[in-house]
Design goal:
mainly alpha, Arc Repressor Mutant, subunit A, three-stranded antiparallel sheet
Length: 150
């Protein structure tokens, strides 16, 4: 049974932490002059900064996003000048997503913001506790993915 004390509810804590960090990231990205980078874009951008020109489906898989979510997200990222889509020359049904000049330019300032915000919000968490936190969150994500697939 769910504990009615809100601060004891894991769902409440996960969602509030996510919302709070997202709000800080949004604010700090604007302050850093990279307001075209929205927190929701970071999973896709991290994938492209590591390997540009991925197929849309592969990029979505790596970012953990459903195809329908991925399409809308890339639409917005194109509108904001960060990425472009092109037909895959080897597969007419597939599209590749590439960083634009702006998408490459925002890499360093955006990563600096992410590092700075995470350093602040994770302050006081020992490295070993951080390893446990990441393992627990990976387990939660894996369990949720399995449940969605049922």
């Amino acid at each position: 049974m769910v504990d009615l004390e809100v601060t004891e509810c894991p769902y409440y804590l996960m969602s509030r932490a996510s919302l709070a960090v997202t709000a800080l990231l949004r604010r700090e990205l604007v302050v850093a002059g990279v307001e075209s980078v929205r927190p929701a874009y970071l999973g896709v951008l991290l994938g492209l900064w590591r390997e540009d020109g991925l197929k849309l489906a592969e990029l979505g898989r790596r970012a953990g996003l459903e195809p329908s979510t991925m399409t809308g997200l890339v639409d917005r990222m194109e509108r904001d000048g960060l990425v472009s889509r092109e037909a895959d020359p080897d597969d007419r049904r597939a599209q590749r997503v590439r960083l634009t000049g702006e998408g490459r330019r925002v890499r360093e300032p955006a990563l600096e913001v992410v590092d700075r915000v995470l350093d602040r919000v994770l302050e006081g968490i020992a490295p070993r506790e951080m390893d446990v936190l990441k393992a627990v969150l990976r387990t939660v994500l894996g369990n949720a993915d399995q449940e969605r697939a049922r």
